[in-house]
Inverse folding.
């Protein structure tokens, strides 16, 4: 989606090349997009383990620091501000719903205020609208919303630091077509928004009257026509440029690849879910993850043999990439171990209510992850001359 | 390089074939110009070259098209990608990646070119087309001319030996078009690329062409040297039109040659003045002062003053992105406006309801089809009467006057660009606005359709409307406008009688003005009238 910048990209190349001390001496290059995504996912994993608002704010701050230090000046690098705004609305919605729907569930704490209760019909017993709102209930909703917002912002950081389309380019050959499909669908969304805006403006020129159905019709028809025409044009352009050239492969090989890939992905999903949710039985965690990964690798290796396209300026994977991923894994590991050992270690005190405190070890771990901002090389800006 | 062997193309539901029994041969390294009116099959001919026709367009193709020894019957477009590069009218629609460099490399990636070779070729292409400074820029942030050069570059980087361009400059301002065409001619001369280019505004390309294909519209294709083809074709740039009237042989194709040929005419015309188009003396219909339009940090229109009088046709010119559209939308009241005043019949259209605003000022937007959403022309017209609370049949009567040939049962999307424009204009005129604004109406129009548009707009002016047209097309504004307003970076940089403004700078001077400079003649019509006068 086309993100209107909440803040402007850094101006001037002189100040941008030495945004951190020592940057002027280092060779600017783009960090491998996968490294940034792994770092961000690791941060998200850590964030998912805690609802302590101070820790969550620290994670947000560290993400913000790394983004501002290492993003490029491309339009998609301004995505972080947009994710912050989405995060705020997530928190607001979460709190609002908790107050309206389930305000009294954690009724042990002091009651802040009481909303008028709406009688619920017999088929919806258990759902109650309004009623007393307790402080701990509202706070729990706030912390929960903050956790979700932090997860979102971690993904936003990855988007700002590495163009998602560029990240998809590293997909192994077997998944190339899938990657292109994703890229195209990512592109269609902002185009739809753009043409909807244009048509809506144009409708005013015709008086913009009519009943609601006619109004919808007058908006939807031109937009859909437009989208259809654009996708046909894109398909034709891609074909004319050689997309989809391939050597023939046997149907059996294709089927084996598909089974391995889908089975592997299912295993991966179960494994990742298991890691995120501490209550999952142990069998469904690491073992499922490893089996899934193995099946995927095999499928990819099989599938990649038939592909014959090459890749322009593939990003190298060097020390900086290892460092960034390693630094991201520090909080992820610390948080996971802490949460497994003592479930309350990373939880904010809600029952009884209390001020949250900032635990030392997790705080240090999150700050260590922030060193990724120094470990990564300074980014290449579109204004800088080619090396 | 390209061989058409008895090619006949027939679209489903078409009464007769678009191309009939076409046999031709295009040699390596030729720059071949494809000309003809809208709907004569130019695009179809171009699409045959890389097999897009019939793979993507439907229809049937009889005969053989062979490109670099490959028969398109057996090679789908993707397997011809290493030989034929294609560039369309709208480069943005064909971009697959985000940045200039990646886009240039995309085609090569598909062909499996090794990374080191690919890197070298991208660098070369960046240099050949002058894109080196833009290499890491996002594609949608580039100007139209730059985007078009990227599209050409990505077709070239695969070392395609044939380049097919379908109206590559139709959306560009004169300067950007020059830039793209200069790039193309350089490729022909330096690399020996075979180029097949279709173009409506012939005055821009004809001087560079080695050969011309003319499609008269009956399905045949006539091939010959550009000068010969232009002497007989139904489409001709003003220079050739002048040459025909004055009986020049051989027909000059560039302004330089024409200036030499026109020496005696310049002598005969010296001291004469062209018939001045009547200065606007009508009542003032629209007065706008200090119009300010901003989008975030960008100032699109900077304190512009505009006055429109009844009976007056004003052309609004300026390069892509100079704020023309923003100004038109602000004048109509539907677009954003951060400052200034607009006064139409004592009120500000921006403060009126949408239907009141369109009764004051009618605007035909750049994408005219955005306004059309019903299934037939007749439905659109009936709907328009309803919207404007006009007597049933008002819109239909207007359309009959503007474009008599339009069949009311057609789907609006099936109309030609010129007919679509006429339909939207008819819809907007149903609300009876005295001020009519048109945003880039000449896009995709051929000479006939443009002449038709000139007639329609002149009629509107004669009826007492004030007409403001934004356009890139200098020849069009030379024929049409009484007054020309030029914008740059949101400022109005000049505003005056067409003859003064259009002859003041070579970038927006029409061909006739260049040929006869320093005489203030703009159009073939004016020259002819003056010569008859002199003959008497």
């Amino acid at each position: 989606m086309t993100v209107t910048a909440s803040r402007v990209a850094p101006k001037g190349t002189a100040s941008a090349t030495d945004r951190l001390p020592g940057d002027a001496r280092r060779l600017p290059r783009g960090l491998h997009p996968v490294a940034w995504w792994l770092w961000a996912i690791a941060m998200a994993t850590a964030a998912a383990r805690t609802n302590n608002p101070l820790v969550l704010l620290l994670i947000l701050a560290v993400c913000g620091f790394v983004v501002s230090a290492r993003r490029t000046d491309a339009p998609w690098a301004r995505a972080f501000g947009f994710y912050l705004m989405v995060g705020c609305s997530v928190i607001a919605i979460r709190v609002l719903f908790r107050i309206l729907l389930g305000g009294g569930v954690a009724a042990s704490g002091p009651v802040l205020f009481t909303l008028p209760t709406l009688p619920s019909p017999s088929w919806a017993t258990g759902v109650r609208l309004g009623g007393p709102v307790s402080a701990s209930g509202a706070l729990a909703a706030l912390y929960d919303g903050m956790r979700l917002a932090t997860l979102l912002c971690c993904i936003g950081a990855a988007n700002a630091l590495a163009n998602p389309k560029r990240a998809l380019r590293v997909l192994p050959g077997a998944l190339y077509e899938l990657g292109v499909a994703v890229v195209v669908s990512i592109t269609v969304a902002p185009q739809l928004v753009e043409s909807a805006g244009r048509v809506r403006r144009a409708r005013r020129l015709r008086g913009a009257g009519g009943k609601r159905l006619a109004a919808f019709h007058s908006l939807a028809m031109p937009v859909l026509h437009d989208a259809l025409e654009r996708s046909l044009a894109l398909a034709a352009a891609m074909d004319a440029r050689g997309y989809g050239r391939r050597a023939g492969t046997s149907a059996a090989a294709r089927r084996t690849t598909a089974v391995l890939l889908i089975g592997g992905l299912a295993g991966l999903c179960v494994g990742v879910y298991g890691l995120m949710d501490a209550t999952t039985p142990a069998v469904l965690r690491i073992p499922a993850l490893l089996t899934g990964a193995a099946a995927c690798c095999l499928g990819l290796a099989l599938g990649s043999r038939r592909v014959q396209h090459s890749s322009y300026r593939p990003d190298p994977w060097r020390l900086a990439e290892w460092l960034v991923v390693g630094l991201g894994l520090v909080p992820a590991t610390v948080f996971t171990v802490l949460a497994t050992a003592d479930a309350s270690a990373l939880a904010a005190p809600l029952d009884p209510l209390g001020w949250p405190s900032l635990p030392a070890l997790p705080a240090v771990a999150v700050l260590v992850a922030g060193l990724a901002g120094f470990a990564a090389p300074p980014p290449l800006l579109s204004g800088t001359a080619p090396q | 390089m390209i061989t058409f062997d008895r090619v006949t193309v027939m679209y489903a539901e078409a009464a007769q074939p678009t191309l009939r029994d076409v046999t031709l041969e295009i040699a390596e390294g030729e720059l071949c110009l494809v000309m003809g009116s809208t709907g004569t099959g130019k695009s179809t001919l171009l699409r045959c070259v890389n097999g897009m026709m019939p793979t993507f367009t439907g229809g049937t193709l009889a005969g053989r098209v062979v490109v670099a020894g490959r028969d398109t019957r057996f090679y789908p477009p993707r397997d011809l990608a290493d030989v034929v590069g294609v560039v369309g009218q709208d480069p943005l629609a064909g971009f697959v990646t985000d940045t200039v460099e990646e886009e240039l490399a995309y085609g090569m990636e598909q062909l499996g070119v090794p990374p080191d070779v690919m890197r070298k070729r991208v660098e070369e292409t960046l240099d050949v087309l002058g894109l080196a400074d833009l290499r890491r820029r996002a594609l949608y942030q580039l100007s139209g001319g730059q985007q078009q050069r990227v599209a050409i570059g990505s077709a070239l980087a695969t070392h395609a030996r044939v380049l097919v361009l379908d109206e590559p400059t139709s959306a560009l301002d004169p300067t950007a078009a020059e830039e793209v065409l200069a790039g193309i001619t350089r490729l022909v001369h330096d690399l020996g690329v075979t180029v097949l280019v279709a173009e409506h505004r012939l005055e821009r390309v004809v001087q560079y062409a080695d050969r011309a294909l003319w499609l008269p519209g009956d399905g045949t294709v006539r091939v010959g040297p550009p000068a010969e083809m232009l002497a007989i074709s139904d489409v001709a740039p003003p220079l050739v039109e002048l040459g025909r009237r004055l009986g020049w042989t051989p027909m000059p194709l560039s302004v330089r040659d024409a200036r030499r040929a026109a020496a005696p005419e310049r002598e005969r015309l010296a001291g004469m003045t062209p018939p001045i188009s009547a200065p606007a003396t009508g009542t003032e219909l629209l007065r706008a002062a200090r119009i300010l339009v901003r989008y975030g940090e960008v100032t699109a229109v900077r304190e512009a003053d505009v006055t429109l009088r009844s009976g007056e046709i004003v052309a609004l010119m300026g390069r892509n992105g100079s704020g023309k559209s923003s100004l038109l939308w602000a004048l109509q009241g539907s677009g954003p406006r951060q400052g200034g005043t607009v006064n139409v019949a004592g009120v500000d259209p921006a403060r009126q309801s949408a239907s009141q605003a369109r009764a004051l000022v009618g605007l035909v937007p750049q994408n005219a089809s955005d306004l059309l959403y019903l299934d037939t022309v007749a439905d659109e017209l009936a709907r328009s009467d309803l919207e404007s609370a006009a007597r049933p049949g008002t819109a239909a009567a207007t359309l009959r006057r503007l474009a008599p040939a339009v069949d009311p049962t057609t789907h609006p999307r099936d109309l030609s660009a010129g007919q679509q424009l006429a339909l939207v204009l008819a819809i907007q005129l149903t609300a009876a606005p005295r001020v009519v604004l048109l945003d880039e109406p000449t896009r995709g129009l051929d000479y006939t359709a443009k002449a038709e548009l000139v007639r329609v707009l002149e009629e509107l002016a004669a009826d007492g409307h004030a007409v403001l047209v934004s356009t890139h097309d200098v020849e069009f504004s030379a024929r049409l406008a009484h007054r020309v307003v030029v914008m740059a970076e949101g400022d109005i940089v000049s505003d005056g009688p067409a003859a003064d403004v259009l002859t003041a700078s070579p970038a927006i001077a029409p061909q006739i003005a260049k040929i006869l400079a320093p005489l203030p003649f703009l159009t073939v019509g004016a020259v002819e009238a003056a010569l008859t006068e002199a003959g008497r």
